[in-house]
């Protein structure tokens, strides 16, 4: 079974490209903010939640996305170790929703990296089936296959499940790549990341 969200593009990029930020700090450390902004844009475009962004969803472009990122940045700003805990992300995004006066804001849950791979796989399936992107935090990994994604937030926007594998569609820097989810989750390192689990009120 393969299921993908209908994500968005900007100037040919699949979601926002972090290299487009004009400031060095956001280019280097704005990955958490990108996943929050991308999620808000997705909810505005696909789930009717235009109240989560400061512009008409029909006017999505680089300039307007940067307006959104400036409003999100105070809550998920770059810092020495980055947004290295799920709780920082949860608090930051929830505070952003409060700052804009969002009515019935999305709930910002989390699944810690210490949880079992089976539970994480179930959560991924459920989130995509519920039409919610999944911000994912990878800290360290013992496989060089995931070196590009270390100490980084990125989005998961789909899954492809076969009898012998579960692949996840990982989105970052305006591009997507399919990753082996179970290998991704089982980092082999003591310091874990995890996933953010959004849910929208009915």
Folded structure, characterized:
By secondary structure, the protein is of the alpha+beta class. The protein has a single domain (2-199), classed as Phytochelatin synthase, N-terminal domain (Cathepsin B, Chain A, Alpha-Beta Complex), CATH 3.90.70. The protein contains six helices and nine strands. The chain has helices at 24-29, 31-46, 62-72, 86-99, 117-129, 181-185, and strands spanning 2-4, 9-10, 13-14, 107-112, 134-138, 152-162, 165-172, 175-180, 194-199. Strands 1, 4, 5, 6, 7, 8 and 9 form a seven-stranded antiparallel beta sheet that branches. Strand 2 (9-10) and strand 3 (13-14) form a beta hairpin. Helix 2 (31-46) packs across helix 3. The model has no long low-confidence stretch (mean pLDDT 97).
CATH topology-level name? Cathepsin B, Chain A
Helix residue percentage: 25-40%
CATH architecture classification name: Alpha-Beta Complex
| The CATH class | Alpha Beta
Please report the number of helical segments: 6
Helical/strand content category: alpha+beta
The CATH superfamily is identified as Phytochelatin synthase, N-terminal domain
Sketch the topology as an H/E string, one letter per element: EEEHHHHEHEEEEHE
Q: Please give the largest β-sheet.
A: 7 strands, antiparallel
Rg from alpha-carbon coordinates: 16 Å
């Amino acid at each position: 079974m393969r299921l993908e969200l209908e994500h968005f593009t900007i100037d040919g990029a699949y979601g926002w490209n972090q290299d487009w930020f004009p400031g060095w700090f956001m280019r280097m450390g704005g990955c958490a903010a990108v996943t929050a902004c991308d999620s808000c844009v997705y909810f505005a475009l696909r789930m009717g939640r235009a109240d989560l962004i400061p512009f008409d969803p029909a006017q999505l472009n680089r300039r307007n996305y940067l307006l959104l990122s400036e409003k999100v940045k105070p809550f998920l700003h770059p810092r020495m170790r980055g947004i290295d805990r799920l709780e920082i992300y949860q608090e930051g995004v929830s505070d952003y929703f409060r700052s804009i006066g969002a009515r019935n804001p999305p709930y910002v849950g989390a699944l810690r990296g210490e949880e079992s791979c089976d539970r994480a796989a179930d959560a991924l399936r459920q989130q995509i089936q519920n039409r919610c992107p999944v911000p994912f935090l990878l800290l360290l990994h013992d496989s060089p296959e995931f070196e590009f994604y270390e100490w980084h937030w990125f989005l998961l926007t789909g899954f492809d499940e076969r009898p012998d594998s579960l692949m996840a569609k990982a989105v970052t820097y305006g591009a997507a790549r399919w990753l082996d989810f179970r290998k991704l989750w089982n980092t082999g390192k003591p310091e874990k990341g995890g996933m953010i689990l959004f849910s929208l009120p009915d």
